[in-house]
Amino acid sequence: MSASSAARAYPAPARPYGATAAPAPARQPAAPRLRLVRAPSHARTRVPFVLVCMGVLAAALLGALLLNTQMAKNSYEKYDLGIELGRLDQDAKDLSAALDAKGSPAELAKSAGALGMVPSEGTGWIRLSDGTVQGAAGGR
Questions:
Q1: Residue 107: closest CA among 94, 98, 96, 116
Q2: Could you list the residue ranges that cross the membrane (predicted)?
Q3: What is the pLDDT of residues 20-72, one digit of tens each?
């Protein structure tokens, strides 16, 4: 194989009938291969954006931490108040039971006897218009 046949794997296409070879266009002078390269423009730095993102993240984490801490504190306060409410409810029930016991007829009679009162043997009433006692008001 020769060098020319190795470089071209396919034969050149045939020209259409009646076509003449066009004259080659005039070559312009070759552009120089070296060009002037500008200095790279200053790209924006990403540092402010990264700092803002880190600040937002830190603020969000701090907010979540404070919220969680406050919720835990409120939970303990709720527990303590629940215990105090139960104790106060029990005290109210005890006082109500003691009041009911003091209000029983036997306890009232005993307290009245301690004060020097005597039971009435009859029922009487006072007329306010003239101040007289009506009915059978008996006493000892």
A1: 98
A2: 47-67
A3: 666 666 677 776 678 888 887 777 888 999 999 999 999 999 999 999 999 99
Closest CA to 88 of 99, 96, 76, 75: 96
Neighbouring C-alpha atoms within 13 Å toward the C-beta of 58: 6
As a whole number of angstroms, the distance between CA 91 and CA 54 comes to 55
Other CB atoms within a 10 A radius of the CB of residue 137 amount to 13
Look up residue 61 and give its amino acid. Answer: L
What pLDDT digit, counting tens, does each position of 85-130 carry? 999 999 999 999 999 999 999 999 999 999 999 887 778 888 999 9
Q: Token digits for 81?
A: 């108040």
Q: Long-range contacts for 60-68 (Cβ within 8 Å, ≥24 apart)?
A: none
DSSP state of 122: S
C-alpha to C-alpha distance for 103 and 72, rounded to whole angstroms: 47
Query: d(Cα 88, Cα 91) in Å, to the nearest integer?
Result: 5
Cα first-last separation, the chain: 159
State yes or no: pLDDT of 2 exceeds 60.
Answer: no
